[in-house]
Amino acid sequence: MIALAPRLAPFAALLGSLARFAGLLGSLLVAAGCGELELFVAADAAPPEDGRVCVPRTCQDLRVECGPVGDGCGGEMDCGSCEEGACGAVFAGLCPEAPACPLAPGEERLLGEISPRAEPIVLDTSPTHLAFFTAFPTGSSPGQSTLRHVSKCGGEVVEVADGRNGDTFGGGHTLDVFGRAYYFATTRFADGDTVWRGAPDTLEVGVLGGIPRPCTLAVDAARGRLLVARCEREEEAIVAVPLGGGPVETLVPGERTTRRRLVASDEAAWWVREEPPAIRRLSLGEPAAPVTLAEEEVPPLDLVVLGGQPWWLRPLPEGGRALVTLADGAPLVRAELPGEPEQLAAHGGGIFLVDAGGVTRVDALTGELRSLSDLPGDRIVVDADGIYVARFGGRDADDVVQPHSFWAIAHPD
Predict the structure, then answer these.
(1) What is the average pLDDT across 142-161?
(2) Are 5 and 41 spatial neighbours (Cβ–Cβ below 8 Å)?
(3) What is the pLDDT, as a whole number, of residue 3?
(4) Residue 348: strand, helix, or coil
(5) Beta strands at 350-355 and 344-347: parallel, antiparallel or unpaired
(6) By the 8 A CB rule, do 189 and 167 touch?
(7) CA torsion 396→398→400→405, rounded to 10°?
(8) Max CA separation in the chain (angstroms)
(9) Which residue from 68, 81, 5, 11 is spatially nearest to 40, judged by alpha carbons?
(10) Across the strands, what pairs with 150?
(11) CA gap 41, 31 in Å, rounded
């Protein structure tokens, strides 16, 4: 369900305390619940006043069911425990639950399709949905970037929030799901750049603040904040946006990251630096300088973290890719990969990737490659319920326009 509320004047004060931005006309909020979505539109939001007060969030605000979580103002709250299973064993901040539409062994399920005009640039999952951000390809006419999702059972693709993007994201990783909330960013010519967060089923406005050129982000749940990499020239930095409002904190000034992925855990954040190319890590528990873990000749294409270790996708000069990790503090090529995958996903004891040849899993311990599906794809995300792939459309060999499609693939036995 999508409900529109055109007048949110009673929440202007709350908006001022939560956001640092000017002239946000037509501001958008998504509130993601269990199978129900509400979309709110706030008109003529006023810029915040000086002296903002941080408003501690609750477990319900953050759509979190269990475990310790930062309250967004520097404190910690206990969101309880689970009656069955371990908190976060399947999805961070949530108790385990059986999937509504489990995949049968060997099943490849078409979830939904969209027009091929705007490409899906990043995927993420909740217990009930596959969420994805679409943007017009780099070099195309300016258009809109849109956050959408589709049920894991399959069905209609729902437009959750329209960012009215006047620029392109260039493949930026601008979506992260924590608990049952979506965190994302938009890049806009007229109104400035904005970072958003999901909310529970209340009329709480979810703008976090104006951040110049947000190109990748990740939730730092332990401290109740959002980490955002800015990619604007001469304003490049990694900053922290409190979920309860308050000033934006610069963690790493002058850091030119790639528009790929920022990964956060309770202990650290990892990212790919563009110039000079390197894998970088920042400890989050206490003030510290970032550490270079590995230097590369060209920027890696993607980065994931598995078991506290970074894994990255290195393009090879002669074609193909190499999957690289660290061993005894030095880069180790775990596997050389045929084809040209662009993204990685980490789950269990393996690294997953997809390209024109299908879906492949690389064993993190042995480096063994295992083909899981011949279904070609371009984007991938993996969780305990399945392997989720976005397949780009466009014109086929007969010049017929094919839609972008989204698939769920069962985990192997």
Answers:
(1) 80
(2) yes
(3) 34
(4) coil
(5) antiparallel
(6) yes
(7) -30
(8) 61
(9) 5
(10) 130
(11) 12
Tens digits of per-residue pLDDT, 110-139? 999 998 877 888 899 999 999 888 876 544
CA 313 to chain centre: 18
For the stretch 204-236, what's the b/e string if a residue is b when 16 or more beta carbons lie within 10 angstroms of its beta carbon? bbbbbbbbbbbbbbbbbbbbbbbbbbbbeeeeb
Cα 122 versus chain centre, distance: 7
- Domain boundaries, given as residue ranges, for the chain: 9-297
* DSSP 8-state symbol, 366: T
Query: Which residue has tokens 């437009």?
Result: 159
Bridge-based pairing of strands 369-373 and 358-363 is antiparallel
Distance (Å) of CA 304 to CA 149, 180, 313, 349? 22, 21, 9, 13
Residue partners of 209: CB distance under 8 A and separation at least 6? 18, 19, 20, 21, 194, 195, 241, 248
Q: CB burial class (10 A; 0-12, 13-18, 19+) of residue 166?
A: middle
pLDDT band at 42; cut points 50, 70, 90: very low
Alpha-carbon span 22 to 40, nearest angstrom: 19
The letter for the amino acid at 298 is V
* 277 has a pLDDT exceeding 80: yes
Sign of the C-alpha dihedral computed for residues 1, 88, 271 and 241 taken in this order: positive
- pTM for this predicted structure: 0.83
**Does the 9-297 domain belong in CATH 1.20.58?**
no
